[in-house]
Design a protein that fits this description.
Helix 17 packs antiparallel against helix 18. The protein has 18 helices and two strands. The chain is mainly α.
Length: 496
């Protein structure tokens, strides 16, 4: 059926869900982390990365709890509507009343006072996550109008920025490999966009050719569900493990031979602003959780899997960064860590492997693009959705994917210098999505459902950080982040 905003699509195993989340979180941030570690000092970096990983895990559990609460809310509203439809006389509640009570004046009679059963005869758990409820729909259910508008501004700015960055980064990497000199002296050669690549074809032309190929290959996934990329996700996840393991082993070999050049400082607070930005984006996944978690067939261990994912990713980040900063001189570390292997034959003298690592950013970004595009498309659908209505096939399958895909591709065609977009809109919107919105969702969902479900109702997907203190702690941390980012921008501009 076209137009259903809560479609879950084809289910997949918990392991596949873990792979999806790993791929989404471990993006280009991992490759920029070694340089940030080297400039901030290893003690400061270790402390900040671990703390930000913990904060991101906490807000991830907040989103999952809010998803379960939203499913319970939808069941309650559906049962209320059925009671109205079954009534022979004119109901004292109209459809608008049902929506009104669902959003701002919850019914005080607990719905668990009526026992419901599933098809197999067992009791229904109202908090089962069986319908995909995007963050936009959760905001509409639990926030007032101002809160909903602020949410959509935040999510759309961030996701469009993400897609534009990804759409530019992949063609840039392909252009560097195809046009750049990947011999051992490549690091000393500087190129301009107007330099030739293939005969009369300039590097800028080559970039746009690769961008067109990228759009034709990955753009169609925007018209489908994230589940359609399952095998692509598994394949590129394998490539990521190979590339990360290769870089870690090569660095360890060099350190073991006593040829490591790294002497990183213990602490250098001048590098903290850059490290903060890298670390925040290195754990970002909250915006795509509904699309990733809902199709998991067995959600009994979803909390354990999320924790395992975060521990695994944190371990990877630390191992990659620490081997890097003790292997290479801090002043020689590239912003994109893979370049330290592609332009240095003393570290890696096998051409095929240098090309493989040179293309590694392509692997990491290409699998994130469809997931984020599907998330933005679903939020657009939710923004314009009205209860009881469905979209025509053309609108659902063509219009929404196009308004998701076209703007970032156009931006990427016009420029591949997106640093200002990342530095300002990304920082503010990213802080909102990773910290403020999840905390608000879980706070208001708890307040909203307690009079509806009753105090004895137990959300089986409840966050382990259930005390209100943690919500306020996240809000305080988010405010500190915004002040920190703003102060850093002002101080940077003052020095120019």
């Amino acid at each position: 059926m076209a137009g259903g905003i809560n479609e879950t699509g084809e289910p997949y195993s918990a392991f596949v869900g873990l792979v999806y989340m790993f791929n989404l979180i471990v993006g280009t941030g991992a490759l920029t982390m070694p340089k940030a570690f080297a400039t901030a000092g290893w003690v400061v970096s270790l402390s900040l990365l671990t703390f930000l990983g913990f904060m991101s895990y906490m807000t991830t559990t907040f989103v999952i709890e809010a998803m379960a609460a939203a499913n319970a809310q939808l069941r309650w509203k559906r049962r209320e509507q059925e009671e109205v439809d079954d009534s022979d006389s004119t109901s004292e509640y109209s459809d608008d009343d049902v929506m009104g009570r669902g959003r701002s004046e919850p019914e005080t009679k607990p719905i668990l006072s009526v026992r419901e059963y599933n098809e197999s005869g067992g009791p229904v758990d109202h908090f089962d996550i069986v319908e995909r409820v995007e963050m936009g729909q959760m905001a509409s259910m639990f926030f007032n109008k101002v809160g909903v508008n602020m949410f959509y501004i935040c999510i759309i700015v961030y996701l469009y920025g993400d897609l534009a960055i990804y759409a530019a980064a992949v063609p840039i990497s392909l252009m560097e490999v195809a046009c750049g000199n990947h011999s051992c002296s490549a690091g000393s050669v500087k190129y301009n966009d107007t330099d030739p690549c293939w005969g009369s074809v300039t590097r800028k032309d080559a970039y746009r050719v690769f961008l067109s190929m990228f759009t034709l290959l990955l753009g169609p996934f925007t018209f489908f569900s994230a589940q359609k990329t399952k095998y692509l996700q598994i394949l590129t996840s394998l490539m990521r493990w190979i590339a990360f393991t290769m870089m870690i082993i090569l660095a360890l070999i060099r350190i073991g031979k006593g040829t490591g050049e790294g002497r990183p400082p213990v602490a250098s607070f001048s590098g903290v602003p850059n490290l903060f930005g890298v670390c925040v984006y290195s754990f970002m996944c909250q915006h795509s959780l509904p699309s990733l978690v809902t199709p998991i067939s067995d959600k009994k261990r979803v909390g354990t899997l999320v924790l395992a994912d975060y521990v695994l990713i944190l371990g990877f980040y630390l191992l990659l960064s620490f081997t890097a900063i003790f292997c290479f001189d801090s002043s020689l570390l590239h912003d994109m860590y893979t370049l330290n292997f592609t332009d240095n034959c003393n570290v890696l003298d096998i051409p095929f492997l240098r090309y493989f690592l040179g293309l590694f950013p392509v692997f990491t970004i290409s699998t994130n693009f469809p997931i984020i595009a599907v998330t933005l498309r679903n939020n657009w659908k939710t923004l314009f959705h009205r209860d009881g209505g469905t979209y025509p096939w053309v609108v659902d399958r063509v219009v929404f994917p196009l308004i998701t895909l076209v703007p970032p591709i156009v931006v990427a065609f016009c420029t591949h210098n997106l640093e200002s977009l990342v530095g300002i809109t990304g920082s503010y919107a990213g802080t909102g999505i990773q910290y403020i919105i999840p905390a608000c969702l879980v706070f208001y969902s708890r307040r909203h459902l307690e009079p509806v479900m009753g105090r004895d109702a137990i959300n089986k997907h409840q966050s382990p950080f259930r005390h209100a203190f943690w919500v306020w702690f996240v809000w305080l941390w988010a405010a500190s982040c915004l002040i920190f980012v703003t102060a850093n921008i002002i101080l940077t501009d003052t020095k120019k």
